[in-house]
Amino acid sequence: MPPPRQNLTGFDPKKLAAASTKTHGDPWARYEAWRYTGPFTRWNRFKGAFPGLGIATVAFAGYLVAEQLFFKDEHGHHDEKH
To answer: Which residues belong to the signal peptide in this entry (predicted)?
Structure first.
């Protein structure tokens, strides 16, 4: 097995990944925490993205049910002899 090639740039992706996951030393972490709590959680941001979608979906489903039950198509061509 050949020895591993030496990196010419000195950049180590494993060290970068390890350093990017540590937030205990981040002085700005406390100031950034508000972005992910309370009304700014991922679910709350998603809920506000489509206002009225739930009401519109229920109304459309109700319309489809009412159309099938009450509004029958009377002028269809079902095996009629001329």
So the answer is: none
User: For residues 44 and 50, is the Cβ–Cβ distance under 8 A?
Assistant: no
Cα torsion 55, 60, 62, 63 to 10°: value is 140
Give the end-to-end CA distance of the chain in Å, rounded to a whole number: 88
Q: What is the pLDDT of residues 1-46, one digit of tens each?
A: 777 777 778 888 888 888 776 666 777 877 888 888 888 888 888 8
CB 23 within 8 A of CB 29: yes
pTM of the model: 0.42
DSSP secondary structure letter of residue 30: H
